[in-house]
């Protein structure tokens, strides 16, 4: 069975973005960007929704055209995404998709991913797409839950609150590391639970 990972970047208070803040909240560093490039070379299929597709395909195209808003490392990460397989879940987009190696799935995303886990040959990972991640977690389809936590609280400007609408989830930590002395990677095996658990319960 193919492994599915939800992969997200967040502030300490659980937001995916914030009004007025740049990408990565301006806190990305060379270690983190080098890791992103390495991750882009890992063989996996990326799953994303329409909004993330529009955003990331536009950024990738702009970086490939020499857009001046990106550092060399950022451009390498963005342009590298064109070469990897991507599955886009959307009822608003139409085929063929212009971003290379992108397949459109118009039906129910949860059921499609359930089938893909049974038949897909390699690992899969989400790319952004908060509502898709929420649905997959709620359906119990997520095998790994990986976060990179940025050292920032966006209580006033934060948006896209990641955990709103999530079920209760127990997390078993399987990996952690620090990038650039400030960004914290946390990787867990998630397990959706029905009720709060008392200490000592499995």
From TrEMBL:
InterPro entries: DHFR-like_dom_sf, RibDG_C, Riboflavin_Biosynth_HTPR. Pfam families: RibD_C. It comes from the Bacteria. Residues 4-184 form the Bacterial bifunctional deaminase-reductase C-terminal domain. This is Dihydrofolate reductase family protein. The lineage of its organism: Bacteria, Bacillati, Actinomycetota, Actinomycetes, Micrococcales.
């Amino acid at each position: 069975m193919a492994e599915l990972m939800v992969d997200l970047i967040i502030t300490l208070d659980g937001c995916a973005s914030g009004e007025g803040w740049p990408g990565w909240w301006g806190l990305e560093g060379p270690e983190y960007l080098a890791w992103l490039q390495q991750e882009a070379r890992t063989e996996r299929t990326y799953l994303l929704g329409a909004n993330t597709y529009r955003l990331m395909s536009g950024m990738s195209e702009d970086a490939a055209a020499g857009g001046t808003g990106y550092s060399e490392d950022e451009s390498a990460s963005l342009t590298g995404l064109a070469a990897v397989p991507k599955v886009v879940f959307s009822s608003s987009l139409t085929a063929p998709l212009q971003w290379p190696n992108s397949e459109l799935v118009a039906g129910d995303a949860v059921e499609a991913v359930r089938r893909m886990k049974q038949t897909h040959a390699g690992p899969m990972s989400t790319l952004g797409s908060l509502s898709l991640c929420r649905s997959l977690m709620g359906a119990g389809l997520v095998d790994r839950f990986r976060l990179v936590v940025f050292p920032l609280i966006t209580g006033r400007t934060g948006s896209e609150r990641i955990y709103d609408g999530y079920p209760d989830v127990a997390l078993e930590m399987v990996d952690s590391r620090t990038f650039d002395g400030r960004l914290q990677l946390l990787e867990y095996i998630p397990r959706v639970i029905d009720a709060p658990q008392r200490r000592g319960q499995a």
